[in-house]
Amino acid sequence: MNIRERREAWEAEYLSPYASLSRDTDGRDVAEELCDIRPEYQRDRDRILHCKSFRRLKHKTQVFLAPEGDHYRTRLTHTLEVAQIARTISRSLRLNEDLTEAIALGHDLGHTPFGHSGERILNKLCPYGFSHYKQSVRVVEVLEKGGRGLNLTREVRDGILNHRTSGHPSTLEGCVVRLSDKIAYINHDIDDAIRAEIFCEEELPSEYTNVLGHSVRERLDNMIHDIILQSMDQPNIVMSPGMEEAMRDLRAWLFKNVYTNKIPKAEEGRAQQLIVFLYNYYLEHVTELPGEYLHMMEEKQEERERVVCDYIAGMSDSYAIDTFEALFVPKAWKVM
After folding, report:
1. Rounded mean pLDDT of 64-82?
2. Cα-based distances in Å from 212 to 46, 65, 179, 209
3. What is the predicted pLDDT for the residue at 68?
4. How does pLDDT run across 136-171, given as a tens digit for each residue?
5. 237 near 227, Cβ under 8 Å?
């Protein structure tokens, strides 16, 4: 019995009867020889962690566009916070921690530069529409590895696709990530908003904080404990009604007071216009796309608009700005 087989035997003996066992995966679209060390979901976690799209998340906006300061969240730090919350819950419930972490690390790979404002403008521009959760699946199925994709298991791709609020993951591990995503961004967006002096902790509505907690640390602790206690030895992942209602209402309050606030959104119009310029430019100069994108059009018969959208969606904030400047901002002239 090799290391992987011993780990799979441990899962079968120790994990919850509702957990997703690595040896029972529905598999990959392209069959591969099993690893002698790592179970399948651990391999998926590793592939996501080492892919280019994951590394680019460090320069993609979470909420605050071009913030001055090192401590505001980026899409990468958000992803890591989601993964840690989800792992804590999964470990406590004896679910498959490798599957949970793989879904968490991959759930936002398809996010655009400039956060949800970039997502909204690409959805308007692209005739096929655009949503980051579908793009995250497209990244791992099509775009990574020069068009070969990462060939992840079906359970990981299902969790990535269904991490959105209206999603319905097929595994409990996916359900854990779906809730952990909300817990993470509600609390770290409050923390960033306080740092930006949009409001202070005491200005949060007391009808929510009296239930959830009166600090980021307290809210995280209460919400994570609530999910664990309510979901222990159950075939679903739930929160208590009062806690869930308070979380949902606080999220709605944040949409009114943070996500549409003039401070984090001060540069949104210009960021979206930048994406419009880039999209239209590459539609007219498609041969200037990198070779892997040209390959997708020539060999895979992908539509030009879809591929241009893929290229722009994959850009980091800084790369999008640098590309715009190279294409549209005049350079100083001097005699050589």
Report:
1. 84
2. 34, 28, 15, 5
3. 61
4. 999 999 999 988 999 999 999 999 999 998 999 999
5. yes
With tokens 């309050």, the residue in question is: 253
Lowest-pLDDT range of 118-127, 177-186, 253-262, 322-331: 253-262
pLDDT for 67 equals: 62
Q: Helix/strand/coil (H, E, C) string of the chain? A: CCHHHHHHHHHHHHCCCCCCCHHHCCCECCCCCCCCCCCHHHHHHHHHHCCHHHHHHHHCECCCCCCCCCCCCEHHHHHHHHHHHHHHHHHHCCCCHHHHHHHHHHCCCCCCCCHHHHHHHHHHHCCCCCCHHHHHHHHHHHHHHHHCCCCCEHHHHHHHHCCCCCCCCCCHHHHHHHHHHHHHHHHHHHHHHHHCCCCCHHHCCHHHHHHHCCCHHHHHHHHHHHHHHHHCCCCCCCCCHHHHHHHHHHHHHHHHHHHCCCCCCCCHHHHHHHHHHHHHHHHHCHHHCCHHHHHHHHHCCCCHHHHHHHHHHCCCHHHHHHHHHHHHCCCCCCCC
Question: Residue 266's Cα: distance from chain center in Å?
Answer: 23
Considering only 6-10, 119-123, 298-302, which range has the smallest mean pLDDT? Answer: 298-302
Is residue 95 within 8 A of residue 173, CB to CB? The reply is yes
Average pLDDT, the chain: 94
Domain coordinates of the chain in residue numbers?
3-259, 268-328
Instruction: Return the CATH architecture of domain 3-259.
Output: Orthogonal Bundle (1.10)
Match 């930006």 to its residue by tokens.
196
Provide, rounded to the nearest whole percent, the portion of the chain with pLDDT above 70.
96
